[in-house]
Amino acid sequence: SLDIANAGYEVVLVERLPSIGGRMAQLSETFPTLDCSQCILTPRTVEVGRHSNIQLLTYSEVESVAGEVGCFQVRIRRHAAYVDWEKCTGCGLCQEKCPSKVPAEFQRGLGTRKAIYTLSPQAVPNKPVIDREACIYFQKGRCRACEKFCPTGAIAYEQTDAFVETEVGAIILATGYDLYGLENLPEYGGGKIPDVIDALAFERLLSASGPTAGKVMRPSDGREPREVVFIQCAGSREPARHLSHCSKICCMYSAKQAILYRHRVHDGQAYVFYIDIRSPGKGYDEFIQRAMEKENVVYLRGKVSRVFTENGQVVVLGADTLSGQQVRIVADLVVVAPAMVP
Question: 121 and 255: one domain?
Fold first, then answer.
């Protein structure tokens, strides 16, 4: 959007979530430089929000497209935020006073948010929305705490969805991605073991803006994990049972997460189960070697057959095909790198 807008063209940027940034906003650092993701992202999202050639429509979805190349008619639904963003200053008082708490999707369920919320402290636009399903007023007809404390009178319970119709010459679709759910992987606990989490959840544990302020803790009891197992290709490259494709980035971000774990837990031990290492970018192979040689991450070439709990810890059964031996690791935390799906 910035490239097109800076070239002098008008842009309509439609985002399904209340703020822009996507998955990048959930990351702690990036590979192979370990640069802070927010340091890269935030200046760009702020510039998008202020750019005179960009019409930013967050909390919105495309309802229909008609016409042809050069002359598309697009109808966009703007979901009701129940907050008048023209009046809202983003002070955050409504979120502070709201009594309702629910699991935060942005934190992958490891933290909580209020019924009126923004996705993150760096949200652009920094305007809250109300979750009807979690709001006490919408569900029980009482409370209205956010309305009482809002200094600008921005709460608008009566707000409804609105529609924007615009004409554009071209459409660029950014599909985004989700992770193959742990519930699809019964061999790894099926999402029912608290200390078996996906890679995005671990990113939130590593992040200074995450639910633990960057301290690595087990979800089950808050203890610092001393033994962490990373499982790559979970649900990937396995067409008989799951998905056939490779997600391309899992080898690199697993190495990154193992390195960052060692930076935070200096006496901790990380293990990575892998099929093969795919590190095709500049400096990528050196990054993998750094994880192995400087951070003492143990790489085990083989698949994990089963993950289960035993005496409050997570037991990982797998194989090391290079040594031809079965491997049993009693871990404090297991981080799964699931397949990416559109």
Answer: no
